[in-house]
Amino acid sequence: MKLEFDNEYFMKKAIEEADIALSKGEIPIGAVIVIENQIIARAHNLTETLNDVTAHAEILAITAAANYLGGKYLDGCSIYVTLEPCQMCAGALYWSRISNLYYAAKDSKRGFKAMGGKLHPKTKVSGGILENESKEMLDKFFIARRNLN
Shortest CA distance to 27 belongs to which of 10, 3, 11, 43? Predict the structure, then answer.
């Protein structure tokens, strides 16, 4: 059986990371960074665990990928993230010079597009990959959180 390394395959890996975040009581957002069909970084939100507002999945994945590559630029890399990045993460993606951003669910309130954030001019963006799976996980998390309060 031949394994298909396509956008859905890598987004499923990001969703697996989001599921890990969910199991830790974190907002279920996951990210993977890929170069030449190889995952070089995996991360999920750890803002509660680390008590750090900057511990978003994208930021942690960027750091891990840069360490793996031995340099700060992620030229030729793609990031798959389960929710459209926020303005802070878009800024980090801008400075990393990531080549491709793929996200699942749109964030119409806090996503970088709604907030006026920008990515590097050479970064290609595509959204909506496995959007329903990601959105469902996020919706369930926030409904459960509201019911606790």
Answer: 43
59's tokens: 């930021």
If you ran DSSP here, which 8-state letter would residue 45 be given? -
Phi/psi-derived region of residue 37, left when phi > 0, alpha when psi is between -120 and 50, beta in every other case: left
107: CB partners within 8 A, 6+ apart = 83, 84, 86, 114
Encoded tokens for 38: 């190889």
With CA atoms as reference, report the closest residue to 84 among 127, 41, 30.
Answer: 127
Per-residue pLDDT of the chain (149 residues; tens, 9 = 90+): 556 789 999 999 999 999 999 999 999 999 999 999 999 999 999 999 999 999 999 999 999 999 999 999 999 999 999 999 999 999 999 999 999 999 999 999 999 999 998 999 999 999 999 999 999 999 999 888 787 65
Looking at the chain, list the stretches that DSSP marks H as alpha helix, in order from N- to C-terminal side.
7-23, 47-50, 57-69, 87-96, 131-148
**Active-site positions?**
58
Structure tokens at 1: 């059986």
Q: CA 54 to CA 28: how far, in whole Å?
A: 15
C-alpha 83/C-alpha 102 separation (Å) is: 9
Do the beta carbons of residue 78 and residue 100 sit within 8 Å? yes
